[in-house]
Specification:
By secondary structure, the chain is α+β, with helices and mostly antiparallel strands. Helix content is 37%, strand content 23%. It is built from 5 helices and 8 strands; from the N terminus they run βααβαβαββββαβ. The strands form 3 sheets. It has a 3-stranded antiparallel β-sheet with strand order 2-5-4. Strands 7-6-8 form a 3-stranded mixed β-sheet. A two-stranded antiparallel sheet has the order 1-3. A hairpin with a 4-residue loop joins strand 4 and strand 5. The longest helix has 16 residues.
């Protein structure tokens, strides 16, 4: 990996830095650059190819295999969330939601932005609580429930012509 001058320094938030340290990951130039992509657009998601193009545009020449490994390590330690993009048959990565409990989100299948749905109803929260209790009875320790709704966001919905 070779580097040209970075366009901006990346400040890593303390909670993310703590996750990196617990996982034994160093804050290398590549790690800071990759985190910078996601911190700059917290609701966005990127595929490996999109991340590679963005990093190259920012002046970082990173090996594609190194990037694959780094994205997977960041997902494994809970900094990023990885989910399948069935339409493109690839993985997409986005910043992980660190709140314990229910984290419902809406993902636009057109632009891949994610919108956190903070107004979860009481019955929805009760389902999450019940799932955590069931896991605890089985000796497991649940950390979060991910609920993802897919569709098309208001920005991507085709506008009907005015009559």
């Amino acid at each position: 990996m070779s580097a040209r001058p970075a366009k901006e320094p990346v400040a890593v938030p303390a909670d993310i830095q703590a996750r990196l340290e617990r996982a034994g990951l160093r804050r290398t130039l590549a790690t800071r650059a990759v985190l910078g992509l996601f911190l700059a657009n917290p609701q966005g998601t990127l595929s490996h190819a999109q991340a590679l193009v963005s990093l190259t545009a920012r002046g970082l020449d990173i090996n594609r295999v190194t990037l694959y490994r780094l994205l997977d390590r960041l997902a494994a330690c809970g900094v990023l969330q990885r989910h399948a993009d069935d339409g493109a048959r690839t993985w997409r990565y986005g910043l992980a939601d660190h709140e314990q409990g229910l984290a419902p989100r809406f993902e636009c299948d057109a632009c891949h932005r994610q919108f956190r749905l903070t107004e979860a109803s009481e019955p929805t929260r009760a389902v999450a609580t019940d799932l955590f209790r069931t896991l605890a009875r089985l000796g497991h320790q649940g950390q979060r429930v991910d609920l993802s709704i897919h569709g098309t966001c208001a920005s991507c919905v085709p506008q009907e012509p005015a009559a």
